[in-house]
């Protein structure tokens, strides 16, 4: 679509592709994994297996000749196309809400820095195993990552030290949305440096100007686009089109929208989310209200209106600590080019390991505890719903 500033150079593809699967895919010259519905034996998945060929036969001629009977060239037996196992038709993506990995820039209270220090594994130590075991993790990063000093004069402004991006990479967080109301706290220069710093660490970012592409270890290409509270659905249609053209078989819309401090989505949230689904987005993931809001299934696709905060260094006390990690299994068709079904695992979390206060170390709520069921109620969800 003409008019959308989407540059292919900005589509950052982080290829962490398993050697066997990618080699087979590359040989078949497809942009997405080649998958058949048959289940193969484990030996069929091994590309190094020898292939037995029948010996060439010699045709006996009735007329005797003194010339040697030529031996026909053997016909090469084609290598079978590897068949991916059923579990390789599933792409598992983890989602959380707002992550602000710093404190207010102007505050004399450096509580986040003092508590976390140089321990880059501290904040996500209770969930890193989940993030590392999935195919991709996406969070909303609600702070610029810059060394700039010129900033806006908002009530709160955030600035993350670029070296602290190791918090994300060590935890298995590969992708971030940066379309939010703090992305330009340090003006356009800060935003540009944020993009550069994320790319230097191999972290895929997306916003309402540029989409992002991530290739999973299985070879599935996932596209992402971000929206802030001032972005309409139609403004990113061109980005969605480009993501599909670049090979994305799953497209995620990460939406920083709604009203802060409320537990129900606004009419505008619903309108934007529905329009995105209608245009072809596979899932809508919301954040910004700092509260959990219900999950909706619309036209066969899930909408998470708000996943609340997850690790938020800007809050030293929490009026509502409830949060969540949602893992979505995108179930692909036999060709691996289209998502045909979904399966959700909803994991209730607290934004802090200690109460009262905030120690910036989210931990899961105990199974079937009062807090566990409170999160489920606010999401209007039961594990048997999917």
Task: Write up what this structure looks like.
- The chain is α/β, with parallel strands linked by helices and 386 residues long.
- 19% of the residues lie in helices and 24% in strands.
- Strands 2, 3, 4, 5, 12, 13, 14 and 15 form an eight-stranded mixed beta sheet that branches. It has a seven-stranded mixed beta sheet with strand order 1-6-7-8-9-11-10.
- The longest helix is centred in the middle third of the chain and has 14 residues, at 187-200.
What's the topology here?
Blueprint: E1 13-15, H1 19-27, E2 90-100, H2 111-116, H3 128-133, E3 136-141, H4 166-171, E4 175-177, H5 187-200, E5 204-206, E6 212-215, E7 221-227, H6 237-245, E8 250-256, H7 267-279, E9 283-287, E10 292-298, E11 301-307, E12 309-312, E13 322-332, E14 339-350, E15 363-364, H8 370-379
Parallel strand pairs: 1-6, 2-3, 2-12, 3-4, 4-5, 7-8, 8-9, 9-11
Antiparallel strand pairs: 2-13, 6-7, 10-11, 13-14, 14-15
> What profile does the largest beta sheet have?
8 strands, mixed
Runs in which pLDDT lies below 50 for 5 or more consecutive residues are 1-72
Class computed from helices, strands and strand pairing:
alpha/beta
> What Rg, in angstroms, do the CA atoms define?
25 Å
Mean pLDDT: 84
Oligomer: single chain
Spatial shape: globular
Strand content: 15-25%
| Helix share, percent | 10-25%
Strand elements, count: 15
Short description:
By secondary structure, this protein is an alpha/beta fold.
List keywords for this structure.
eight-stranded mixed β-sheet; seven-stranded mixed β-sheet; alpha/beta; 386 residues; 15 strands; 24% strand; single chain
């Amino acid at each position: 679509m003409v008019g959308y500033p989407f540059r292919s150079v900005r589509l950052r593809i982080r290829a962490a592709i398993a050697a066997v699967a990618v080699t087979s895919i590359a040989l078949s010259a497809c942009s997405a994994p080649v998958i058949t519905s048959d289940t193969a034996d484990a030996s069929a998945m091994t590309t190094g297996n020898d292939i037995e060929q029948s010996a060439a036969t010699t045709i006996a001629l009735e007329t005797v000749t003194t010339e040697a009977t030529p031996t026909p060239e053997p016909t090469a037996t084609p290598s079978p196309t590897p068949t991916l196992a059923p579990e390789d038709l599933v792409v598992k993506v983890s989602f959380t809400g707002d992550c602000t990995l710093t404190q207010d820039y102007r505050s004399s209270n450096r509580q986040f820095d003092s508590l976390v220090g140089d321990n880059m594994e501290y904040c996500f130590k209770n969930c890193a195993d989940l993030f590392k075991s999935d195919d991709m993790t996406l969070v909303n990063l609600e702070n610029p990552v810059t060394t700039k000093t010129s900033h806006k004069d908002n009530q709160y402004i955030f600035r993350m030290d670029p070296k602290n991006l190791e918090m994300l990479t060590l935890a298995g967080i590969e992708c971030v949305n940066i379309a939010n109301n703090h992305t330009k706290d340090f003006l356009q220069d800060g935003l540009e440096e944020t993009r550069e710093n994320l790319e230097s660490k191999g972290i895929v970012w997306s916003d309402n100007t540029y989409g992002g592409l991530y290739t999973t270890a299985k070879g599935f290409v996932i596209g992402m686009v971000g929206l802030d509270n001032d972005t309409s659905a139609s403004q990113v249609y061109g980005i969605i089109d480009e993501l599909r053209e670049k090979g994305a078989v799953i497209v995620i819309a990460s939406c920083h929208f709604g009203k802060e401090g409320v537990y129900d989505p606004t009419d505008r949230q619903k309108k934007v989310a529905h329009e995105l689904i209608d245009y072809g987005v596979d899932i809508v993931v919301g954040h910004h209200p700092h509260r959990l809001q219900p999950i909706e299934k619309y036209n066969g696709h899930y909408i998470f209106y708000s996943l609340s905060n997850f690790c938020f260094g800007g809050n030293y006390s929490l009026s509502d600590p409830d949060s969540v990690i949602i893992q979505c299994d995108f179930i692909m068709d036999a060709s691996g080019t289209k998502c045909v079904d979904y399966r959700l695992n909803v994991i209730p979390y607290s934004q802090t390991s200690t109460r009262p206060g905030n120690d910036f170390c989210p931990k899961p709520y105990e199974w079937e505890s009062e807090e566990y069921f409170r999160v489920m109620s606010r999401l209007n969800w039961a594990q048997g719903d999917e």
